Amino acid sequence: MIPLNIIVENELCTGCGVCVSECQSAKAKMSWSNTGFLTPSFEQEPSDKDKAAMLLVCPFNSSPAEEIEDEERIADIFLSEAPNYDGKVGRFYSSFVGYAKNFRNTSSSGGLATFIFQQLLEQKIVDHLFVVQEVAGTYQYQLISNEVDVSNFSKTRYIPVTMADLFLKINDLDGKVAVSGVACFIKAIRLKQHYNPDLREKIPFLVGIICGGLKSRFFTDFLVQKAGIYGDYSRQDYRIKDLSSTALDYSFGAFDQQGKHHTIKMKTVGDMWGTGLFKSHACDLCTDVLTELADISLGDAWLDGYREDGAGNSVIVTRSAVAEALIREGLQKELLHLDEVDHTLIVKSQQASYRHRQDGIAFRAKVFKRFGKRLPKLRLMKSKKISLSYAMVQLQRLVVRRNSLKFWEDSPSIIRFDKKMKPSLFVLKVLTKIHHKLK
Ligand SMILES: Cc1cc2nc3c(=O)[nH]c(=O)nc-3n(C[C@H](O)[C@H](O)[C@H](O)COP(=O)(O)OP(=O)(O)OC[C@H]3O[C@@H](n4cnc5c(N)ncnc54)[C@H](O)[C@@H]3O)c2cc1C
């Protein structure tokens, strides 16, 4: 199979799979890469026409048309009715923090995603959902139709998944579809809708899952070993809540081949998010913290006054009239327990993500350019000039990210991996400490 060179070779693919449906000439499919990501591959070299079509729907295209060149322009097309705008939040109606009473305990955060999907089906706004669900012990996007127990597919899964199937099936599907996705997946759907306007009606609602970076499959393999499973595993749960503790104090769990359940507290395995371990390179070139192009954006309420509650709370940003109505109705019917908050509080809940992704983007872009890496069309935020100490932290995070993928690929065993990672993680820790001191 031949990879889609420009994007895949420059590690700019996050595996959304939307490009696969644009390739008529070469039987495209999504396959696992050596570093544990899903990327497109082809039985033969695609035609030039197909290559161009695939790039048009790629969220990491380096030369998109001007009218869709960044999140702001795309939001102008799809979310123009939203009355409010903020440079960090995007276009929006309202913002809230809280939970869905019926789904909180069985969900990752406050159960808002599950609530929204239930309402979309119940109110017949859509006929199908395209969401991530267990399939044979692992997780994949699945098309789900009416009359389902929506809590069967609650919880977010931090293993690579792809939407490739959706656009291969959608033309034969009767009815409308709602989709959940992280920012780059939602952007890819918007691009596909832009070039195929029929799909705007067919996919009338997008649930945005706020994302701090996509992880390689190695992340799951690593956690499984940390939990004490050294063979095949299944039905991993990335967010097991501890109702007697705080929201941050959650566990990872999975089943071994004998069906025994193993768990490990995430706080014992080290910082998995701030370090960049097992992260996709493309995520270091994404500035969309709050899934700005979805109808509704949902994340974790990492905020004082909420994070103390181990049952979990969601942050919510409504961006379309339908999303706004669903939330207001949920409040009226007392299905939701929410505080309406200023949008700056939502920004505060993702402070670390803004710092890394938006403040650091211009510096990282310069570094990648120097190393001859191709860049997507970047939205260079009004980025502050970063300090020397933060630049050092940024550089070391790139080293940690690259090392983690290489070392796990070379020797997928936690003992060898931890030993090999120790020096670069130590340097990152020291540089971060120095940076915080100087700040
Ligand atoms: C890779 C990743 C990184 C994240 N990083 C952050 C972060 O930095 N900050 C933050 O606040 N929140 C982050 N989240 C989101 C957070 O973990 C919660 O998922 C979110 O708050 C929704 O919780 P909920 O209780 O409303 O969802 P639930 O009610 O539990 O429902 C989750 C829904 O998401 C769908 N789903 C599951 N996995 C995926 C997936 N991989 N892609 C698309 N849809 C999926 C499920 O089918 C389900 O419908 C991240 C999630 C992922 C997958």
TrEMBL record:
- InterPro entries the record matches: 4Fe4S_Fe-S-bd, Co_F420_Hydgase/DH_bsu_N, FRHB/FDHB/HCAR-like, FrhB_FdhB_C
Which protein is depicted?
A: Coenzyme F420-reducing hydrogenase, beta subunit
Species source reads: Sphingobacterium psychroaquaticum
Q: What residue ranges are annotated as transmembrane? A: none
Q: Which domain of life is it from?
A: Bacteria
Q: Which GO terms describe its molecular function?
A: oxidoreductase activity, acting on CH or CH2 groups, with an iron-sulfur protein as acceptor
Q: A Pfam family this protein belongs to?
A: FrhB_FdhB_N
